[in-house]
Design goal:
Ca(2+)/H(+) antiporter (chains A, B, C); membrane (chains A, B, C); about 80% helix; homotrimer; about 350 residues; transmembrane (chains A, B, C); mainly alpha; antiport (chains A, B, C); A middle domain of Talin 1
């Protein structure tokens, strides 16, 4: 019964939201409708992820959620690259990485930690995640330093950017091979936590289908929401960097946000971590490199050189997330720490 | 009997030291008397801390010691802020942080490690301490990077400094809530090490009283000592930065130094770590932010921007201390490593 | 029988290689002969190291291998210092450190990991290694920052460089005392892995002798190889930095490379790690400081200031190696990660 009510609400709000967008209603109204719609859609997505995680394990469930979530971002960024809006692309990549590592992970640990004294996930996975984050920082950091050297021409810059992009993608693909095939068991959560939930409502195939549908809905609604925010932000005089790195990242990652928090509150912290950290790794090691290669194929190469401010934000996020998550144990205070760093960065980006 | 002799010596030397200071005796004589007096006072303080630790646990004992020790510094720094001597305040904050992380912790690990092959303290505490140190570095580092951006006005600088200060204080207060209330047991040392000492001489209430008295005595004598050093240093042509960050920090933290080393040698390494790391965290996350807010209330805001040299010193100290203390196990060589880094920084500051 | 064939091949190829070098044959021919010779010599060295490790434990075996390997480099660098070629010395120090941490360690973990699902070595050793690497980075980093300060004269630069050099050597000597004497047992590999191999062919004394002979042979052949590369590189227009930091480092460290990989494939990962990380620590904490002191004694001081690019390469290598090796467990993917970072740095150095 409650189930039925929920899905009715979901479909009605999604339709309303679409109508509001395509009939160009008043921006404030559009915003309000989409905001309600996204709450329903996010709830749906959380349910679907949990159901998939039941069949496929927390990691694969989290991975699928992160991938579908990032697919939407990849598509949006692709169009920005086509139009040559490289700075905005990099700002939104930065925002996605720090948003996932600090906001999504922070809220998950806080929400989960307020309910459970201490939550555990696979420590080996935690350490491998940390190392991959370090690789991502190195991949962004090294070109930025070398580009400052004398006689470093634009051609060299582009070549280095493409080479690093290929290496990062290769590292990511091999990571999937390692973590999903050769060492799958080593990185799995202990059965204990996997068995906690009740029987899911959907079959295996249906769960995956629902996950896809839910992700698509969230992607559409968040796209409409972002559209309204654009007007809002010009009205309030916010900088492009702040909008790209914070507003868009927060709304655009609504899928990850909601699913991760819901899973954390059900003590499936392994899946929550996979969504948050896995998603930011995917952006740094796959989405960003793919965009660079795509830009080169389109004839105008976007380099991998981020601004010092963006690099600082990413490096800082990686170090605190690494420090927090490295032991495979989480509690509410670790969530607070991540959110604090997010606040510091948010205020700094707002002021710049 | 020995007890009685000790307290007679303490009171006599304290009185002598006070007389020497207020009658403006010859500086060299003042220095000699205060130096002897501080040895007695430090011994007294160590005794009192150990006694409190017996009743309240190693962590609370260490925390109280650190807090009373920093109270003196806060008062001195407060007057410096009032006079607008911001550079000296920051130099002494830097000195306090690196002095505690490298000198106090290094001497404690070395002294304890020469007596015991391996000493242990709560590993979860070690990891939380590490993460908090990373937060402190981020809090100091982010504003320094962003302030370099174009169009970053003084008003923005002050706003960012105040915002970061509020966030750091909030993080520190929540840390106390977390570590002293909600997750107290998780961060406690195992009983094994807590039970080692013999029966203390004082009751619970008397122990705390003695701790307060001892801290006040140490604060006074170290203040008098600092006063004599001022003349010494001008005579030897030392830079203000070196005096602020090393001489004053060493003498001004005499309380922490002596107590931590004494506790480490009695195998209460948990209390020693709490004094050293706890004290530097308190300075970075509480004392420094409070001074910034106080300066704003007094009408002339001190910003949170440290010089690149100071930031380097702090970051370097945090990373080596994190690397050394992260596993909750200590030995003499780890103490040596910390002291080596202290020497490198000391020489570098001396030369600048 | 196979044994006999191998040694015949070794001696013949070594002789050929020497003849080719001293009769100034065609460079391409010299290169081909030396390249085959070094394969034999490296195999010999691996055998000898393994034999020593059997008697003396994995750590001491690895340490001896690393020391003999670095002795050759120290001698070459000594002559470069004498001729005042400080930049080339620093480039090759940089190359040795990153080559050992990324290429040697990476290949070892990959080769070992393809054969064994997970390999283990002493975790306490891993953590101490990490901390020493952090010390090395600090020792190189602090002077580079302070030298940028105003009024920092050349005399101060030299004094600081010498002081840091003395401190690093002291730290290294105490490390040997700690790890080989006072806490030897704590850092040893568990017997399990030490007992794996079959009975070695040589006695204890003969094994050490063979290790010395093998190292000397490798040193000579790699020197001849480096000589041929010089012509090659000018022909292909490579930068001095790239040749110094990559080509020379790869060939010059052939001893470490081969021995470490062979040991890793026999599941003696502890010895492989000791060779790779131990060797880079020895270079950073002993070889480099000794060269600085030697240069001062020869009347023209080489300072410890590395270029930002070199510092980045070293810091980046240390952080990924620390992140990978910190838990005392290794697998093929961790090897891949190290090699990826090596590729990124290699391409960047090539382009500069």
């Amino acid at each position: 019964m409650r189930q039925k009510l929920f899905f009715t609400g979901l479909i009605v709000m999604f339709a309303f939201s679409a109508i509001a967008h395509y009939t160009h209603m008043d921006m404030t109204l559009q915003f309000a409708i989409s905001a309600i719609a996204i709450v329903f859609a996010a709830g749906f997505l959380g349910k679907a992820t949990e159901s998939v995680a039941h069949y496929a394990g927390q990691r694969l469930g989290g991975f699928l959620n992160a991938t579908f979530g990032n697919a939407a971002e990849l598509i949006i960024a692709f169009f920005l690259v086509k139009e040559g809006l490289f700075d905005m692309v990099k700002a939104s990549i930065t925002g996605s990485i720090i948003g996932n590592l600090l906001l999504v992970l922070g809220l998950s640990l806080l929400a989960g930690g307020l309910k459970f004294k201490q939550q555990h996930f696979n420590q080996q996975l935690a350490q491998h995640n940390s190392t991959l984050m370090v690789l991502a920082v190195i991949g962004l950091f090294v070109p930025a330093i070398f580009v400052g050297a004398e006689h470093f021409t634009v051609e060299k810059d582009h070549f280095l950017s493409l080479a690093v992009a290929v290496i990062l993608i290769l590292a990511y693909v091999l990571w999937l091979l390692f973590s999903m095939v050769t060492h799958k068991q080593m990185l799995e959560d202990s059965e204990m936590s996997a068995d906690h939930g009740e029987e899911p409502a959907w079959s295996k195939g249906r769960s995956v289908l629902m996950l896809v549908v839910a992700t698509v809905m969230v992607a559409f609604i968040s796209e409409w929401l972002v559209h309204t925010l654009d007007t809002f932000t010009t009205r309030f005089g916010l900088s492009e960097l702040f909008v790209g790195a914070f507003i868009i990242a927060i709304v655009g990652n609504a899928a990850e946000h909601s699913a991760a928090v819901i899973l954390a509150m059900r003590n499936k912290i392994g899946a929550a971590v996979e969504i948050a950290i896995g998603s930011s790794l995917q952006i740094a090691l796959f989405v960003a490199p793919v965009l660079i290669i795509a830009s080169a194929l389109m004839g105008k190469t976007m380099d991998i050189i981020f601004t010092p401010i963006e690099l600082t934000a990413i490096a800082v996020s990686v170090f605190i997330a690494k420090s927090v998550s490295g032991d495979g144990q989480t509690n509410w205070y670790e969530g607070v720490l991540l959110l604090m760093v997010y606040c510091i960065l948010g205020i700094a980006f707002y002021l710049v």
